[in-house]
Each structure stands twice: as C-alpha cells, then as structure tokens.
Amino acid sequence: MKNNLQTQFLESELAIAAVAALVWSLLGLSLEVLGRPAVGHCQSVQTAPNAASCRVHNQLSGGANVGSGTLIDVTASGERGLVLTCAHLFTEGTGQVVVEFPNGKCHGALVVAIDQQADLAALEIARPPALAVEVNQQTAAVGNLTACGFGPTGAYRCVAGPVLGYSESPGQTSVRIGGAVRSGDSGGGVFDNRGRLVAVVWGESGGVTYASTGGR
Asked: What is the pLDDT of residue 171?
C-alpha cells in the first residue's frame, strides 16, 4: 500500500519539486522587514472561516492530534490539492489523517513532506472543495499579520497583531506576532493585509504567537 501511494504521488500533477518550492521558497519572509517591529495592538477577531482553511486530524491508536491547515495549491484538473500544516502534529507518528473543511467535507490525506526543524508538513488530498490561497512570494506586509485556526473545539478564530520581530533556530525562521493563539491553532495560516499566506502557526508563549516561515 505504501508503495502504491508513493507511486500515485510521483505520477500526480503535483511534482515533488513544486511541493518543495511551495513549502520552503514561497513562504519566505523578508528578514529586513521582520527586523523592524510594528506598532499596534493585538485583536481577537471572530470571522467566517476562509474556505481554504481546514482542520487537520491525525488519528492515532492512543487518541487524535488536532491542528489547523491551509490549502495552498490545487492542480489544474482540480483532482489534487496540497495542504500546509505543522509537522509536530505527526511527532508521535502518522495514523489516519483527515482534513476537514468549513463546508463540512472531510478528505483523507497523505503526508507527502515533513520538515521537523521548520515544523512544516505538506498533505495531499483528492478533489479539494475550495480554491487555494495566494502565497506571498515577496516580502511580509508592514503592520499587522493575522493568525487563524480552529482551536481545540473547531471554533474558527483569527488574532490580528503587530509583527514583533523574528527568531531563528537551526533550519527554521519564525515570525513573532503580538496576540495569543490557542491549542489546536497550530498549523493554521498567518495572513498579510491582502489575505496572502505568509507563515504557519506553531506555538504561543507569553501572549506572543510564533509562526514558521520555513527553513533558511
């Protein structure tokens, strides 16, 4: 079964090179921009879910690890899509992975790429029910960024706050955003003021959200 899944992916319209480009290159933020803290206040916003946002379930024998994700690419035929989420949902292993969209549709997912250092993972699904979000390929927006996710209960929420700077660790650059995300928001998208994806939430500490922009 594993070999069949690998073969299907290799033969799909989503080439491995495209996955790598989307996950690592297109999520790059400008360190020059991130180095200049913005002035502002965080704000929790209740809003209708973006159709490309989703909840990610990794069902293991001992329970489920639940996070959030974002649809970042769809093939021209509409048959396959790529969801970006956080890698730590799969630290304990990969079980039955299901992606749930706001319209209530659930899709079985195949984990096709994981970068533990950057805390990013890519999932392939069949016949995605929404259009992919635009990914910011240039620089981060100056001012506020908005982090969104489904939390522990599936209730969608966004937190908008100023860019406070960035942190670097081996294989990862993280943007720091004023405002606290919740458990279950990990893997959710961080968006600029034009609605473009710029980073992926991986954690929170002391009222500050941390989101991965990929490896450097």
From this structure: 86
CA distance 131 to 108: 18
State pLDDT tens for residues 118-161. 999 999 999 999 999 999 866 555 578 999 999 999 999 999 99
The pTM of the full predicted model, rounded to 2 decimals, is 0.80
In whole angstroms, give the CA distance from residue 146 to residue 133.
14
CATH fold group of domain 53-126: Thrombin, subunit H (2.40.10)
Boundaries of every domain in the chain: 53-126, 144-213
Q: 44: Cβ–Cβ under 8 A, 6 or more apart, which residues?
A: 157, 158, 159, 179
What is the CATH architecture assignment of 144-213?
Beta Barrel (2.40)
Q: Name the residue among 81, 102, 94 with its Cα closest to residue 149.
A: 102
Nearest to 44 by CA among 144, 146, 142: 146
Question: Do the domains spanning 53-126 and 144-213 agree at the CATH topology level?
Answer: yes
**194 CA to centre of own chain:** 17
What angle is formed at CA 172 by the lines to CA 141 and CA 81, rounded to 5 degrees? 70
E strand residue ranges, the chain: 43-45, 53-60, 63-74, 80-85, 96-100, 106-115, 120-126, 144-149, 157-169, 172-178, 189-191, 197-205, 208-212
